Amino acid sequence: MPGIFVLGTIENGIPSRSTLELLTGAQRLAGGLQEGVSVGLLGPGDAASLYRYGVEAVYRANHPLLKEYQADLYLLALQRIAQTAGARVLLLSGDSLGRDLAARLAFRLKAGIVTDVIEIDIEGSEKMPRFTRPAYGGKAAAVIIPKRFPVVVTLKPRTLDPAAPAGKPKGKEIPVEISLDLAQARTRMVERVQEETTGVKLEDARAVVSGGRGLGGPEGFTLLVQLARVLKGAVGASRAATDAGWVPSSMQVGQTGKTVSPDLYIAVGISGATQHVAGISGAKTIVAINADPEAPIFKVAHLGIVGDYKAILPPLIAKCRELMGS
Amino acid sequence: MRIVVCVKQIIDPELPASQFRIDAESKRQRANGHPLVISPYDENALEVALTLKEKTGGTVAVVSAGEPSAISALRKGLAMGADEAALISDPALDGSDAFGLAAALARGIQKLGTPDLVLCGCESGDWADRTVGPILAEALNIPCVSFVAQVEAQDGRLRMRRVVEEGYEIWEGAPPLLLTILSHESNVPRYPKVKDIMTASRRSIPTWSAADLGVEAGDIGKAAMRTEVQQLTLPSRESRCELLDGEPAQQVATLITKLRERKAI
């Protein structure tokens, strides 16, 4: 039985980006621990494309009640397929779904748990998996080892590269019987609201322009939107700006928000709290524009301008527009 | 409604990185006399509890599992408006992972009386594992909704706004429930009044040991650890920020040049 288990999702007939990231981790563990890889799927979705990534088996729980996310039902189904698969290491994405399930799943499987993992390797002769994760808001990095198996691991999204196809596709699907009843859902999701985002997705953007408390109000974001548009990028925000209700929380970059790793990150009026910095450590170039020369953001930025963003952004937008020829 | 809020006392997470030191033996941050605070989201959770109490009546208790110093975090909770507080502190808890802490918290919460609602911060300001809350829900055998920004009580049921990547979800459930709370404009923690700080400083707060709570020795401490911190290191990333001088037009021109050199645009 394959011991490395990935909770996968299929989008438009192919593995989702986060599933491919999980498969990268799984391939690494499988190589080091001499184990096989299985994928668990909840609900429908064509599994065939998974076999190109070294997946030996797909365990699927298919039930009409799994069509949309209901935590209690997903947990019951996931526990069932993980046990059927004989999982020793379970990899889940550290997105809002994985975060919601992982710790409770670990409790039910009497497993250990490591969250927000950014690196996986195998320690020498002991053949022990080692999981690296940020700690103290990114001020330190911790290496965590399991003291028992199984262990549930969530990977911080957008840190491992998506898996490349590995070898000849050879795998089979194993249906897992499950009976579910809506009465088992002690809480219910009754509505899902998508907040409007225009243009490039924040997580995918090569350029991100983010604003914080220093903008002074929601109207400050107008300039940021213009700059982001010229750079063909996306607009983000610090927790201070989303907590103030200036922009929707889906725009939050940081420890509790999104992790971004663009080529260019421009932080405008953002003090640089550790909570925010934790979400931008993968950015190649960080520019800080802030009126306060003492702001901690200047400790992490590569290039900094101390000044009033209202004076800096208009000429910056104009210059970039010239350069980009738009 | 009986509400219990779990709070964790941590070293101020906004301490500058330059003052951050690692204790090699415990593989944790060295306290070095730095200020201790309530982990930020736990204060948001307490604010949610106090607001619910004001609207629907009931009581709010704060509970913490940690060092004896955490009594000051509980006093702040009382000063903010909690009715009751209890500390779970025992050297036997040292080295506990999320499962050990949740086992102790579950017993402490039950000792306070069966709760309708248990609130935790969505993550701690130090390790941010996001595990104690959901594990505690399992240990108490109650459902959990995570990353909740807003809660409303309606006809004995609760309606939660859960934040996800692309927006939010609305969840409903009947007590008992455990929620992990995210900061939001509706739950900015209140400042305690001086009078209430004075009153809280005179309150006696019970401290419970693992034995007081009937926690199995095998469920807590180092021996029960399911995962271990093998190493804690400082990342070597120390970028030197280049500050660009001049008038805005000059600063922008230099910025563009530098960004092109770095192939950032």
What's a quick, concise take on this entry?
The complex is a heterodimer of chains A (326) and B (265). Chain A has 2 domains: 4-184, Rossmann fold (3-Layer(aba) Sandwich), CATH 3.40.50; 202-324, 3-Layer(aba) Sandwich (Rossmann fold).
For this structure, what is the CATH class of the largest domain in chain A? Alpha Beta
Number of strands of chain B: 15
Q: For the CA atoms, what is the radius of gyration of chain A?
A: 22 Å
Architecture per CATH nomenclature, i.e. the level-2 architecture of the largest domain in chain A? 3-Layer(aba) Sandwich
- By CATH, the architecture of chain B is named 3-Layer(aba) Sandwich
**Low-confidence spans of chain A: pLDDT under 50, at least 5 residues?**
none
Strand order of the largest sheet of chain B: 11-10-9-12-8-1-6-7-13
Biggest sheet of chain B, open or closed, and with what strands and sense? 9 strands, mixed
- Reading the helices and strands of chain A in chain order gives EEEHEEHEHEEEEEEEEHEHEHEHEH
Tell me the count of domains of chain B. Answer: 1
Using the coordinates above, name the CATH class of chain B: Alpha Beta
Ranges of chain B where pLDDT stays below 50 over 5 or more residues in a row are none
Question: What would you note in describing this structure?
Answer:
The complex is a heterodimer of chains A (about 325) and B (about 260). Chain A is α/β, with parallel strands linked by helices and about 325 residues long. Chain A folds into two domains: about 5-185, HUPs (Rossmann fold); about 200-325, Rossmann fold. Helix content of chain A is about 25%, strand content about 30%. Chain A has helices at about 15-35, 70-85, 95-110, 220-230, 240-245, 275, 295-300, 310-325; strands at about 5, 10, 15, 35-40, 55-60, 90-95, 110-115, 120-125, 130-135, 140-145, 150-155, 170-175, 185-195, 205-210, 235, 265-270, 285-290, 305. In chain A, strand 9 (about 130-135) and strand 10 (about 140-145) form a beta hairpin. In chain A, helix 2 crosses helix 3. Chain A is elongated. In chain A, about 55% of the residues are buried. The model of chain A has no long low-confidence stretch (mean pLDDT about 95). By secondary structure, chain B is an alpha/beta fold. Chain B has a single domain, classed as HUPs (Rossmann fold), CATH 3.40.50.620. Chain B is about 30% helix and about 30% strand. Chain B contains seven helices and 15 strands. Chain B has helices spanning about 40-55, 70-80, 100-110, 130-140, 195-200, 210-215, 250-260; strands at about 1-5, 10, 20-25, 30, 35-40, 60-65, 85-90, 115-120, 145-155, 155-165, 165-175, 175-180, 205-210, 225-235, 240-245. In chain B, the strands form three sheets. A nine-stranded mixed beta sheet of chain B has the order 11-10-9-12-8-1-6-7-13, sandwiched between helices. In chain B, strand 10 and strand 11 (about 165-175) form a beta hairpin. The radius of gyration of chain B is 21 Å and the shape is globular. The mean pLDDT of chain B is about 95. Chains A and B meet through helix 3, strand 7, strand 9, strand 10 and strand 13 of A and helix 4, strand 9, strand 10, strand 11 and strand 14 of B.
